[in-house]
């Protein structure tokens, strides 16, 4: 295992931070991590976790888990596919690609999307139009992930879910700033920018100090501070 691979799999993000950065309700993310019991006409059923954390000894998520949650957010929230159906489809993809984290693999970006959508489509009887829309959404989403040696190495989160082609201004990179969210190509953590803004520094001053554009600074602040503040 290379040093980069180790960093990608280190427990590094709390559930609260991951949920905030990816715009996922904490309860939803917890269900993906621990599984969920739900009622059916045949009684209670249990849907297994969708995300396997690097260690049961730690509650934190790894960078790879962050990427998985990034993809799952669209699958679950935008297309409203039931948790058990997603789990069944992921089990199929894991067998096909022989990997425990298929959503963070480049194989998913190439062949896996079609296999996943077709599998889910059969499980939920999705129309051809529904499957096409899901495939298009996932393909746009996966453009915000960079890969090396088949595995995700950078994630560019999107603050504007309805604008999948928005600029890649911020990045999660496990080899930079201990994996903290940072302004792309600078290594400057967004948390530091937000702290200075909260303390009274103007956006123009921050842009000048860090050699960034106003747009980069504004995006960093939006991610870190509540809407009423940012």
TrEMBL record:
Gene3D superfamilies: Winged helix-like DNA-binding domain superfamily/Winged helix DNA-binding domain. Residues 11-90 form the Putative antitoxin VapB45-like DNA-binding HTH domain. This is DUF433 domain-containing protein. It comes from Pseudanabaena yagii GIHE-NHR1. The lineage of its organism: Bacteria, Bacillati, Cyanobacteriota, Cyanophyceae, Pseudanabaenales.
